[in-house]
Design brief:
Layout (H helix, E strand, L loop, with lengths): L19 E6 L5 H8 L4 E7 L2 E6 L1 H10 L7 E2 L5 E6 L10 E6 L2 E5 L14 E5 L4 E6 L15 H4 L4 H11 L10 H16 L3 E3 L2 E5 L5 E5 L1 E5 L4 E11 L16 H18 L6 E8 L7 H13 L5 E7 L10 E6 L5 H14 L3 E6 L8 H5 L4 E6 L22 H20 L12
Parallel strand pairs: 2-9, 14-15, 14-16, 16-19, 17-18
Antiparallel strand pairs: 1-3, 1-4, 2-3, 5-7, 5-8, 6-7, 9-18, 10-13, 11-12, 13-15, 17-19
């Protein structure tokens, strides 16, 4: 799950430290305006973090920039060699070394003490690395999209099948169980309910065992849930749609008081809702609709699934993977989502950006090629085209990994947020699986 190691700052030993850095709000800036900020005289380096642009350089240049842009606070004096990026997994609000300069998406920019080494980290919980010079960590999709993208009338009926109230009802049912992977009774009840939902849609359901470390030592056996659709024309080409069904609260070892509505009943219910949207159109390719256990303890369910596919020779059949983790929280009426993958799969990310613009114009997407810490990572590490969809505001959710992560506490925007991500995913999946009205022209019923 480790990201590739990146080098230290692109500066020679003789280069003078930068004097000032400023965080600029670029939510409403055009692509040309963002480029102009990066290229201003006296700006020596920049870091694009979605809706935030960090620029560093000469004190006079940064002072002038502060007067003519939308700064988020005062300029900060620093030595750029003391900057570090922290990828945040389970606890974005916990205390961490250094001074927090900006948080955007799933990364924090922090100023460490002078000369301090990078903090030790757990790749499944957080990850630290130095800052490259002039780096796009995440980028607002709108900056690179054409002015207008039209919806495909053959895809629109599939998008329209997404039912926000039905999705939220499934989320609510899942949140009625404590789903810690260290538990059994409630976790198994959720497992069986997911299987019954998928089976009712006509899918072949299996619950393969996998092993993972137990909370008190030794190993325990848990199950993923897989609902399999066999493609009508291309059965040996597979698309995976997944999200974890386990949950946790502030104590990882607790097996009670872990409703996990946002994290991740929202994504698991989303898997079921996408099956409802796609299956009536008889996908040409095979689809595995999956809900994993063991994610919170270290991505065990998804990791074991990749290993199983590699072991039985089926991994080569997988074409693409779409993972959802925390898709139902928005702190306000502005709907924002983050889609992330490796840079190798930038074109795959771009398909989701185009789909959002065409089918859900109220959804603002940020694209990141710096992935971290969810069930997309085992597939990406095995070099499979994979994307994670996650709501941007999850790090600000006050009930994240708490016993108060209930449907009621997800707020009034939950259904709108979840539906926006699900409709975006339905549009792309319709093309990936070959589920559209076009297939009827090929003689399908």
């Amino acid at each position: 799950m480790l990201l590739p190691a990146l080098g230290l700052l692109l500066a020679s030993a003789s280069a003078a430290p930068l004097d000032r850095a400023l965080v600029v709000d670029i939510r409403h800036a055009t692509a040309a305006e963002v480029d102009a900020l990066k290229q201003r005289p006296g700006v020596h380096w920049w870091l694009e973090m979605g809706a935030r642009l960090v620029v560093g350089g000469e004190a006079s240049a940064i002072s002038e920039l502060s007067e003519h842009s939308k700064p988020l606070g005062e300029a900060v004096a620093l030595d750029r060699r003391d900057l570090a990026l922290r990828a945040v997994g389970c606890n974005p609000g916990e205390a961490a070394p250094g001074r927090l300069l900006v948080q955007s998406g799933r990364w924090q920019l922090r100023q460490l003490d002078a000369g301090a080494a990078l903090p030790a980290h757990d790749a499944g919980h957080e990850l630290w690395r130095r800052v490259d010079g002039n780096e796009v960590l995440a980028r607002q999709a709108r900056l690179d999209l054409p002015a207008r993208l039209a919806a495909d009338p053959l895809i629109q009926p599939i998008v329209d099948r997404i039912d926000a109230a039905r999705w939220f009802a499934d989320l609510t049912q899942l949140a009625s169980w404590d789903r810690s992977s260290y538990g059994t009774t409630s976790l198994n009840a959720a497992r069986d309910w997911i299987g019954s939902r998928l089976q009712a849609l006509g899918l072949t359901v299996t619950t393969p065992d996998f092993s993972m470390p137990g909370s008190g030592g030794g190993t325990i056996t848990r199950q993923n849930v897989i609902g399999r659709w066999t493609g009508t024309e291309l059965p040996d080409e597979w698309i995976i749609v997944g999200g974890h069904y386990d949950s946790r609260n502030s104590s990882l070892g607790s097996v009670t008081n872990a409703p996990g509505a946002e994290d991740n009943a929202s994504g698991c219910a989303g898997v079921i809702e996408l099956a409802r949207a796609l299956l009536p159109f008889k996908p040409r390719r095979s689809v595995l609709f999956m809900c994993y256990a063991g994610e919170e303890q270290g991505l065990y369910g998804s990791t074991r699934h990749v290993q199983a596919l590699q072991g039985n020779g089926d991994f080569a059949k997988v074409r693409s993977v779409v993972i959802m983790d925390m898709i139902g929280y928005s702190a306000d009426n502005q709907l924002d989502a983050l889609y992330e993958s490796k840079a190798t799969y930038q074109s795959f990310l771009n398909r989701f950006a185009a789909a959002a613009a065409a089918y859900v114009p109220g959804l603002n997407l940020t694209l990141s090629t710096n992935p971290f810490g969810s069930d997309h990572m085992p597939y990406l590490n095995a070099n499979k085209e994979t994307v994670l969809a996650i709501d941007t505001d999850y790090a600000d959710y006050p009930h994240y990994h708490r016993n108060t992560d209930t449907p009621a506490n997800m707020g009034v925007n939950a259904q709108a947020m979840g539906a926006a991500i699900l409709k975006t995913n339905a549009a792309v999946l319709a093309e990936l699986v070959g589920a559209s009205d076009r297939i009827f022209g090929a003689g399908q019923e």
